[in-house]
Write a structure and sequence with these properties.
By secondary structure, the protein is of the alpha/beta class. The chain has eight helices and twelve strands. Helix 4 crosses helix 5 and helix 5 runs parallel beside helix 6.
Length: 258
């Protein structure tokens, strides 16, 4: 596995007026790994994700992609690098089918006419590459899909554009047991394909099942950045609620092979 991070943020600061939300935050995402971003409400997770996605400009800090310093002025810049975000609301249009949603705003055309055959073929191809078997037809309306199927479509949409980094915001929230299982399997397969995945989640069971590394935020600061195998659920809860764990040694970024 590559020892060069796909995405690396160093010393990130972000304020809104007098409120300092992110304090010298470091974040590293490696190819083929799932990094879980955990923290209580108000810890700064959403702000950090939006900073990565180019929605919020950085006040200070360094943004590196594929080992090179870059400047991200907006979501288009982040997308051009290969960064896709799947937000909790999924941003899917219920009145459109799966193909139309996956290519929304990026439609393939032959002259002035939509190339439905190509789009349908590519949609099937990416779903197959992720071993998605829960969707009967790519022409199903999104309104007819279950919560798990919708999350699957949103993740497949992110994977469609040869993404290098995919950010997933609470992908299993409000899902049942069976649907959660499907989504977690998909997240793991996405990482196994070489994509760097950032998983934002409150569900520590999900985190410990699929994450290779855990970055814990506490009041806008990184409390720890550790390999999942090196911590327990109790220690992570302590990091989330107090910002430290008395019996946690070496709370720092592990190597890419961890």
């Amino acid at each position: 596995m590559s020892t060069t991070p796909l995405l690396e943020l160093r010393g990130i600061n972000k304020s809104f007026g007098v409120v300092h939300v992110l304090h010298d935050v470091d974040l590293t995402i490696y190819p083929g790994q799932v990094t879980a971003l955990v923290g209580d409400n108000g810890a700064g997770k959403s702000t950090l994700v939006k900073a990565v996605a180019g929605i919020y400009p950085l006040d200070s800090g360094e943004y590196h992609f594929d080992g090179k310093p870059v400047t991200v002025h907006g979501p288009k810049d982040a997308s051009a690098l290969g960064i896709e975000v799947v937000y909790q609301d999924l941003a899917l249009c219920e009145n459109l089918d799966i193909v139309e949603n996956m290519f929304l705003g990026r439609e393939v055309k032959t002259g002035p006419v939509l190339d439905e055959t190509t789009m349908e073929s590519k949609a099937r191809e990416v779903l197959a590459s992720l071993s998605v078997r829960t969707v009967k037809s790519v022409r199903q309306s999104v309104s007819s899909l279950s919560g798990g199927q919708r999350q699957t479509v949103a993740i497949a949409k992110a994977a469609l554009w040869n993404s290098k980094v995919v950010l997933l915001d609470e992908p299993t929230a409000a899902l049942g047991v069976a649907q959660t299982r499907q989504v977690l399997d998909l997240v793991r397969r996405l990482a196994d394909s070489g994509v760097g995945v950032l998983l934002i989640s409150h569900n520590l069971s999900d985190v410990f099942e699929v994450a290779d590394r855990i970055t814990a935020l506490y009041l806008g600061r990184v409390a720890a950045d550790v390999a999942t195998k090196d911590v327990t659920s109790r220690q992570v809860v302590e990091l989330i609620t107090t910002g430290s764990s008395s019996d946690l040694d070496g709370a720092s970024a592990p190597s890419a092979t961890a």
